[in-house]
């Protein structure tokens, strides 16, 4: 065999899994067929063998199947980011002339997507406090889609999703929720009657702050609509290696979430006694029906006398940075986005308290994290 042939031939025997406990990474752009008939059947839509990774890849399918099972949904489709998943859902389902009711304090880039792409395309969008979706049975009259977060971004307001779903079904409205905060361990929206669940898998699903990814879980029919439009045509597909990292992340989702919860419980207990802290937002099992756990993402408001930049700069274990849900503890002072110039952002439009600070509690030792936090509070007054 010539060198070019050796270098380019298919490494077939090595492409099998050979009894390994982790799935292989199908790091391939295309899939070949044994014969003409098999290839022709796939092209005619008579088989669903993998064809091309933009559309379908077994490592990605493995992650999708795990997410569908965890959320209790029929099917799932993964994307290159949480925003890839959100834009796929909204752009595939919300058509010009339709009306969308969106929750206030929605993720800031979802807000920008709505303002810059959805509304200019002719979709009508109004924003409501999350509680209104449950309290007002007529809120959704005349709407086509309700787009929700519970808890909401930064404010962590929660709502009874079963009541929201019942109101929406009575009006024939399709419901979509971003469930990134709760993960399927703490809240399963499909069980409560919500139609579609979205995750930024970059957060707890990955858990290792090394991947950006998204996923949508829903009925087979809804997922097929997203899959047909978004993957082949928009092309925001998840890479096989990223899918493999997410499968790896899911192995430890349960123990990680237990540890985040234990640390958050410790913080909530001790924050209650602190004069420097005027408010704690940390939804938990008793906040609302259908929510069965506390995650490590909470927000607090610091009293007037606390110097927020000094507090942030004194922290040693907590670092300053966006995102959340990883092994490392992070803080985000809301004042940073409230001060941004230019087009009004979601925090400015919906009014986030300027003294709010969001904490993402990681997997460090809880007592060491608390000591660090306490020292920074005391050093900032
Ligand atoms: C981070 C985040 C997103 C966006 O996800 P990406 O993976 O960063 O694109 C969406 N919703 C919520 C609630 C988030 O925190």
UniProtKB/TrEMBL annotation:
Keyword Transcription attributed: no
Record-level Gene Ontology MF annotations: carbon-sulfur lyase activity; pyridoxal phosphate binding
GO CC, any one term: cytoplasm
Keyword field contains Nucleotide-binding: no
Cofactor(s) demanded: pyridoxal 5'-phosphate
Domain of life: Bacteria
Residue(s) carrying N6-(pyridoxal phosphate)lysine: 203
GO biological process, one term: transsulfuration
InterPro entries xref list: Cys/Met-Metab_PyrdxlP-dep_enz, PyrdxlP-dep_Trfase, PyrdxlP-dep_Trfase_major, PyrdxlP-dep_Trfase_small
UniProt KW keywords: Pyridoxal phosphate
Pfam hit, one: Cys_Met_Meta_PP
Family label: Belongs to the trans-sulfuration enzymes family.
Protein's name according to its UniProt entry: Methionine gamma-lyase
